[in-house]
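REVIEWER CHECKLIST
Item 1: Sequence provided? yes
Item 2: Single chain? yes
Item 3: Sequence as submitted:
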Amino acid sequence: MSKVEMKGDIGFLSWFPANNTNLKVFYLLNCSLSGHFQIPIHPHKNLMDLDISNNGFISGPIPPNICTIFPNIESLSLSGNKFFGKIPKEIWDLTMLSILDLSKNKLSGNLPPGFVSPWMQEVYLSRNQLGGTLTTNLSYQLGLGVLDLSHNCFTGTISYWISRLPRLSYILLNDNQFHGEVPVSFCLENSKLIDLSHNHLSGHLTSKIFTSNIINCNARVAFSKPNHDMEFVSKTLLYTYKGVPLQLISGMDFSSNNLTGNIPLQIGHLGNIKVLNLSYNKFTGPIPPTIANMSQIESLDLSHNNLSGVISLQLTELHSLSSFSVAYNNLSGKCPQKITQFSTFDENSYQGNLFLNCTLPLLTPKPPLRPTTSDDGDDDGEDGFIDMESFYASSGVSFIMVLLIIASVLYVNPYWKQAWFYYVGVTITGCYYFVVDHLPVPTRYKVWELRI
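Item 4: Structure as written out by the authors:
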């Protein structure tokens, strides 16, 4: 294995592997390399993992003969650079390639039919300029677990083959131009991350999405260890997840679309979900009380819809909830009580609902405490809050206690006694001269002082 950190031209990649025929893993990530991506002339059959990601200055097209030079490569990471042009179709012919990361470049053009090879497990193509529709002839027995096509220019409908892949657990298609309905065959309950936000999706989010394919979903094999990072919005902020946090997070984001109809009660089947975002749509009807079944949920955003009715008191049972918003709907009734996690949510979580009452009840002020009066009507000075006789007595006792403590300390420690009288004398002398210098003292006192 070789892990190199350097600056300069990337051109040496054309001869370095050729002179190290046993090289299997070659990392040049997070450097400041520049120039065009050049590969050796002769095949290098032992190289299995090549990562030149996050350099920022490597440009040019991806060499089309990459599959003949590195025929046995299993992981190829070229993200975070300035590659442009089309993705060479030869890449899809790499029979050993399982992880492909070409994200954060300037790649354009359409993806060819069958772009995901049957042996691929992870495909990252986000933040490019790719477009066209997704058409392919993939079979059902594929091993694809991660598909990240976010932040591109894809159009058309979301192909049904995507929702039928048996191991697909991370589906990021957000920030594109997809339209049409959400495929019914999506296995939402078994998905770790599914992001369809910021598209043009329409239609109803029907209960069939959660129930019609339940046998198929239960037969799916979980895929939970992505090798590269992914972006996902949680608690209104965009986070980059990788490693263990990526394996622990689970969420569904359908925000910023044109989805209509009621939110189905069956959405409560997503018991292990941590993030649910349905904001900026056109959902109507009540908030499903079954959301209370999502015991692990941490972020719930239903804002900017047309939801109506009351907020179910059952939602206060969501003890893991740390971000909550139903703002800008048509909700009515009273806001949930300020208990459990709901004691942390302010008015921003409910604003924009004209008929929703979130005003706290006014507390009746207690009358001021008054001292007890005697029977003979002697109540001089008893209009205040303090019993003055008790105040004088306690003050006198406190003053005497302080004097006794000082006397005891000075008696026990002769050094402290000597220091005490010294400082007392210095203080008296300083006060005297201050008075003499600043106040009009009769002359006879000054003369008397000078004789001393």
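Item 5: Key structural point noted by reviewer: The CA atoms of residues 114 and 137 lie 6 Å apart.
Item 6: Recommendation: ____
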